[in-house]
């Protein structure tokens, strides 16, 4: 099979994968609350989702480079299935915490592998595939919560409805694993050197993988992309973990919450249609900073609009568009700075930063929410994020000027990102 066929599978697989997680994750906090978990408990349980990825991010990225993205996708899908089944059969809040450890490991392995799968080819082909992958990802994030909301609405007991969505997600994961096995048999897997895998998994190799990943941050585009994606993922984790609980306080039904989250996914998918137009008018650095600033303002305004469902839809649409722009733009900024043989490590590093932000976000927000309430927590957290984005915007201007200077000093003109399409 041609490389483009596997890239298309990566694009479609990304949509399917995010539909599966979109079916399960939005209802997890509601399910935990039904089982008696407090706001503080939920904050720390959701934090566990990001804990394992922090530990395995860089070795996973190196294994993707050594074994290939298809084999690692298979390992990740096994972890995903274990997580979902554990949630279905959980009888206590600590068991839910264990399921989130597996969920976190599955997400970082599968998301990194899918991104590597679609990042091959020349710059124009690669950027087009990344943008298309991002659209499918947002489409999955839109459809997943909607399907989960429909399933849960058939049950009069909320906990039974949430459990049914986890069962449906587990069935979908099994189907994905069967299709993945068919493609994996036809994929040209790289052959690792003798002892390479054992070396990677050893304590010395484990430390070396993080050192090699951190070495990638000497590239300024990598630094910038990581900072930008940290802020956006912090906001995304905050919304995914606590927006359902917050809207539940205002009497929103599970189906209404699901449609709002689906609306966010739709906005993210539609925003990918304007990425090329934005790239023709602005630098990638300015686009990323602007998206983060918009998303931060949305956090501050959330308590203001929450009582009105129509204003909530409007705000979530803006947030979805801002976060939707982040993924392709941050990857484009970083991926040009490294070679193909380092992209597994790069994606592992990117997702390591994402998971670190998703560890900090629910933990801090859960503590704030338990002491001052969710409304005040949204105001306080949003204000800090807006202040942070002012500093990030200044860094964006500096990066854009540095890029212009570097470009003008080269003897051979190179195409800028805004001229690609």
TrEMBL record:
Name the predominant localization: membrane
User: One of this protein's Pfam families, by short name?
Assistant: MFS_1
Membrane-crossing residue ranges in chain numbering = 42-61, 73-95, 101-121, 133-155, 161-183, 224-247, 253-275, 287-306, 312-338, 359-392
Which molecular-function annotations from GO does this UniProt entry contain? transmembrane transporter activity
> Subcellular location, in the record's words?
Cell membrane
Q: Which InterPro entries match?
A: MFS (IPR011701), MFS_dom (IPR020846), MFS_trans_sf (IPR036259), MFS_Transporters (IPR050171)
> What membrane topology term does the record carry?
Multi-pass membrane protein
Q: Which residues form the Major facilitator superfamily (MFS) profile domain?
A: 1-399
User: Keywords assigned by UniProt?
Assistant: Cell membrane, Membrane, Transmembrane, Transmembrane helix, Transport
Which cellular components does GO assign to this protein? Answer: plasma membrane
What is the protein's given name? Answer: Major facilitator superfamily (MFS) profile domain-containing protein
**Organism ancestry:** Bacteria, Pseudomonadati, Pseudomonadota, Alphaproteobacteria, Hyphomicrobiales
